[in-house]
């Protein structure tokens, strides 16, 4: 926080002026945020101090899905319990577009693959030839999601002077899914063949539910981190990022506004 120790307050007017100045240098800011995201990679596995647990693997206590609209199934009902999603640390930052005036951002990430494993309880009616066959299974499972692309719109604000994530809306696509569900006896292979073909459609049908889960589980975890960042901390970080000689004027302008 060099040069900021004597700053005791930053009013809304000054904040807005600073954000307008920064808007003119979005490319540099975007690059800085990409680097900041990259710098968080190790923390996904180790957690964040003082008490934020690791997000890779990400634990899901339970997840329920049912449908009568999946290809190959007359009906499909599944409960996933004690599941772990692995591979979140291995993201690639595809695009970052920071919008200072609205304190929002568009972030696009890709994953070569994500893996999910846990326990399942499944009841499904599938077709073997022209005949419907109802099967049930309770056993372990694992799934591999290949070529996952995630686009997230994020909206920030301030809560009691601290940075706060207010919105995190996700859109995504999955190239393919490989399923390995146990517990169906001789029909296990047929079930997994149909399930592998159907799970991309299942994910698309569950976008609303997945966004609700993100709102309930992911945003609170992230805000545990963000709520430790004040307005002054945020401006100090932005100021520190703008180190190129070509951006000296904007750095001086920001510092001048904050000291006046």
TrEMBL record:
This is Uncharacterized protein. It comes from Polypedilum vanderplanki (Sleeping chironomid midge). The lineage of its organism: Eukaryota, Metazoa, Ecdysozoa, Arthropoda, Hexapoda.
């Amino acid at each position: 926080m060099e040069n900021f120790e004597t700053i005791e307050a930053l009013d809304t007017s000054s904040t807005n002026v600073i954000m307008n100045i920064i808007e003119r240098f979005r490319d540099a800011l975007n690059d800085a945020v990409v680097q900041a995201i990259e710098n968080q990679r190790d923390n996904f596995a180790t957690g964040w101090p003082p008490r934020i647990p690791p997000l890779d693997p990400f634990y899901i206590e339970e997840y329920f899905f049912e449908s009568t609209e999946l290809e190959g199934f007359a009906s499909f009902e599944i409960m996933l319990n004690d599941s772990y999603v692995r591979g979140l640390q291995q993201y690639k930052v595809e695009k970052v577009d920071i919008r200072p005036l609205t304190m929002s951002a568009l972030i696009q990430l890709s994953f070569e693959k994500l893996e999910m494993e846990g326990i399942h309880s499944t009841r499904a009616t599938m077709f073997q030839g022209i005949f419907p066959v109802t099967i049930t299974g309770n056993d372990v499972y694992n799934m591999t999601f290949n070529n996952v692309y995630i686009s997230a719109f994020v909206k920030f604000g301030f809560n009691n002077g601290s940075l706060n994530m207010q919105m995190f809306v996700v859109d995504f696509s999955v190239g393919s899914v490989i399923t390995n569900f146990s517990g169906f006896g001789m029909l296990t292979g047929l079930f997994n063949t149909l399930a592998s073909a159907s799970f991309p459609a299942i994910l698309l049908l569950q976008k609303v539910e997945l966004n609700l889960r993100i709102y309930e589980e992911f945003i609170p975890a992230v805000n545990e981190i963000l709520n430790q960042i004040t307005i002054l901390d945020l401006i100090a970080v932005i100021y520190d990022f703008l180190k190129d000689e070509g951006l000296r004027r904007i750095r001086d302008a920001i510092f001048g506004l904050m000291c006046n």
